[in-house]
Design a protein that fits this description.
alpha/beta, seven-stranded mixed sheet, about 15% strand, D-Maltodextrin-Binding Protein, domain 2, 15 helices, three-stranded parallel sheet, globular
Length: about 375
């Protein structure tokens, strides 16, 4: 076993993310081409710009002698791109953009990648633009399961970025044993060292499954009330150390969390530098989700955004993203391309679930606005948000 990484010592991957090396944040095309010994010559003449605000650790960086997706895109198209990692939690980000979009004003980002249910909410509010599909010929490479999804029934407003699974992440140096069940999160042995996500659907979804409640069939708050009661009791008992967004990875690596609700790709990435960090789909099952690219209303650079979407839906490009982020790609042909880069990863059932794995996953039901409000109210009362 390896020693847990101290709190003030970041892994190489975390350093890249925090320092902005992911996607060469804010790096202009001329600067990139100059560094590569090239010139600023492209069909667009470098006149277009683009800002994609995404979740952390969600695109392959330029590092270790490899050129990341953002830099490859800039070199191929001449678009000067800024890539941000300002997305930590769906409701938190919604609160940031609501004042502008709600007032009919555009936000700074041209592309954002909310989780499917939040994308559906933004679409229903009329806060998104239709995709210029005529500029995205690779739209035809979208996996069938994401064609006309429930959150975007007409398929006009979204293109999935990545999909994944919520389960249990744990630090075996702290737990001293393998974790297999949601029940382990409530084991008094780990009192004060358990983390839960502020993403209600993942936290409540897993607890529901542990109680025999199918989260994909929830229609009212009463259906999920036992899960809320169990979570509230654990909070009151001091079982839970913290509710976190995507930043749970720091506490997991440092050992502040023995175990927590976590996302598959994050933990697979962390495991490269911290093999003591592991991920498991619990015996009771896991939740499945999708983060999807949308264009916020009034976006000024829709053409450049379409070019980026088209670029990332090329299986060759998408495979390089998958190799790094280690989530489920929504792009057809990625597995074959990934096999050329990393044959072992191409066989990983967390990235390419077999039928047995798929049978253990559930996606949270779409809630009506009033039911959604009740869930949010009750969850916020527990988390203190």
């Amino acid at each position: 076993m390896s020693t847990p990484t101290p709190k003030n010592q970041m892994t190489r991957r975390q350093f890249l993310a925090r320092s902005g090396a992911l996607g060469a944040l804010g790096l202009s095309l001329p600067a990139f081409l100059a560094a590569c010994g090239g010139s600023d010559s492209s069909s667009s003449g470098g006149s277009e710009s683009l800002f994609f605000d995404n979740w952390p650790l969600y695109v392959d960086p330029t590092a270790d002698g490899l050129t990341g997706t953002v830099d490859r895109f800039m070199a191929a198209t001449g678009v000067a791109m800024t890539y941000g990692e300002g997305y930590n939690d769906n409701n938190e980000y919604f609160a940031k953009i609501q004042p502008l979009l709600g007032a009919g004003k555009p936000i700074e980002a041209d592309i954002i990648a909310p989780t499917f249910w939040m994308a559906g909410r933004l679409i229903n509010l009329g806060w998104t633009e239709k995709l210029p599909k005529d500029l995205i010929p690779n739209f035809s490479n979208i996996e069938d399961v994401y064609v006309n999804p429930t959150w975007d029934p007409t398929g006009e407003y979204s293109m999935p970025w990545q999909a994944g699974t919520a389960g249990i992440a744990y630090n075996i140096d702290v737990t001293g044993r393998e974790i297999k069940s949601v029940a382990d999160l409530f084991d008094p042995e780990f009192k004060g060292k358990i983390g839960m996500l502020t993403e209600m659907r993942d936290t409540i979804g897993l607890i529901c499954m542990s109680l025999g409640i199918d989260p994909s069939k929830i229609a009212s708050f009463e259906d999920a009330a036992p899960a809320f009661e169990k979570l509230a009791q654990a909070k009151n008992d001091g079982q839970i150390r913290a509710f976190t967004g995507n930043d749970y990875t720091d506490d997991l690596v440092s050992g502040n969390f023995a175990a927590c609700v976590g996302w598959s790709g994050d933990v697979l990435q962390l495991g490269k530098d911290s093999p003591n960090v592991r991920f498991v789909i619990p015996e009771e099952g896991g939740t499945s989700w999708c983060d999807t690219m949308i264009l916020p209303k009034g976006v000024p650079n829709a053409s450049a955004a379409a070019k980026f979407m088209n670029f990332c839906y090329d299986p060759v490009q998408a495979a390089q993203i998958t190799q790094y982020v280690q989530y489920l790609s929504p792009v057809k042909g990625v597995r074959d391309e990934l096999a050329k880069l990393d044959p072992e990863l191409a066989e990983n059932t967390l990235l390419f679930p077999d039928d047995a794995t798929k049978a253990r996953l559930r996606s949270f039901a779409t809630l009506s606005e009033d039911v959604e409000a009740k869930f949010d109210e009750e969850f916020s009362a527990i988390t203190g948000a």
